[in-house]
From TrEMBL:
InterPro entries given in the database record: ATPase_NBD (IPR043129), GppA/Ppx_hydrolase (IPR050273), Ppx_GppA_N (IPR003695)
Protein name: Exopolyphosphatase
GO terms of molecular function: pyrophosphatase activity
Pfam families per record: Ppx-GppA
Source species, domain of life: Bacteria
Species in which this protein is naturally found: Tenacibaculum piscium
Length: 297
């Protein structure tokens, strides 16, 4: 048996994460990927990028500190290979390239700023194919802070894929008219591309749906129903921000974005006719680890 250690840094619009994973190799067996450590730092780059158009000096310095801390954590774990990827906030900030350059200079960590298509491709390199039954149709919805990726699978193949600027951090900072317009675009795309399919299920990805799944107490692999998700949405919406923190023990940077995130998943279910959503708890960092191991990055 051999055990290799890999690291993935995911610089998102709502948080920056480090995943350290063990890759266990045994003769005549597929490699086993096991999470060893997950560190999440609430640096909300999306508020900078989507409201002011630039990443602030303060948050640039916070990122530098976070990445230096991640380097020490990876050193202690004995990580042999890692990759850092940034998504929509860094992509849209006017000074994104400058910030990436500053971080490289200060930490020697090169950040790959990826687009929505590449982000989806990296996530698909996870165990998603084990979840997909070739006889059914699925709408995969990955809700982030700055964007949401929608991918339609049918008979085990990708039919259509599109990224929309409808992330949670963006939604809480946008004007209501802007949010209504983008929801309308997503509705048209979902309805158009799912209308010829029956028995569609959703696959949900992202920190917010993972949290809702955990709160549901469901067994791993069991789906959440539309009725349950709608009830949760109404429940969360009625609570104040402070109540979500004190009564539900949500992190402060989760307590505000969980409501718009739930609305996106719920809307996608309504527009596609899906009655249940599977939550495999996979994300960009998991995809980075697998892509590193198989030399796809």
């Amino acid at each position: 048996m051999k055990i290799k250690k890999y690291g993935a840094i995911d610089i998102g619009s709502n948080a920056v994460r480090l995943l350290v994973a063990n890759v266990i190799e045994e003769k005549n067996k597929e490699p086993l990927f096991k999470k060893s450590s997950l560190v999440r730092v609430p640096i909300r780059l999306g508020t900078d990028a989507f409201v002011n158009g630039i990443i602030s000096k303060e948050n640039t310095n916070r990122m530098i500190d976070a990445i230096k801390a991640f380097q020490l954590i990876m050193k202690v774990h004995g990580v042999e290979k890692y990759k850092a990827c940034a998504t929509s906030a860094m992509r849209e900030a006017r000074n994104g390239a400058e910030v990436v350059s500053t971080i490289l200079k200060e930490t020697n960590v090169a950040i790959d700023v990826i687009d929505g298509k590449k982000e989806a491709a990296i996530i698909f390199s996870t165990d998603l194919h084990h979840l997909i039954d070739s006889d059914f149709t699925y709408l995969y919805v990955d809700v982030g802070g700055g964007s949401t990726e929608f991918t339609l699978f049918s008979k085990g193949r990708i039919v259509k894929s599109k990224s929309f600027k409808i992330g949670t951090v963006r939604l809480i900072n946008n004007k209501k008219t802007e949010n209504n317009a983008i929801f309308k675009q997503v509705q048209e795309w979902v309805e158009k591309n799912t209308k010829n399919y029956k028995r569609i299920s959703l696959i949900g990805s992202g920190g917010n749906i993972n949290k809702i799944f955990k709160m549901s107490g469901r067994e791993v692999g069991k789906p959440i129903s539309y009725i349950y998700l709608n009830a949760q949405y109404q429940f969360l919406k009625k609570m104040s921000y402070k109540q979500r923190i004190s009564e539900l023990s949500l992190n402060p940077d989760r307590a505000d974005v969980i409501v718009p995130a739930t609305k996106i998943y719920l809307s996608a279910m309504k527009w596609s006719g899906a009655r249940k959503i599977f939550v495999p708890k996979i994300g960009l960092s998991d995809g980075i680890i697998k892509s590193l191991y198989f030399n796809n990055l």
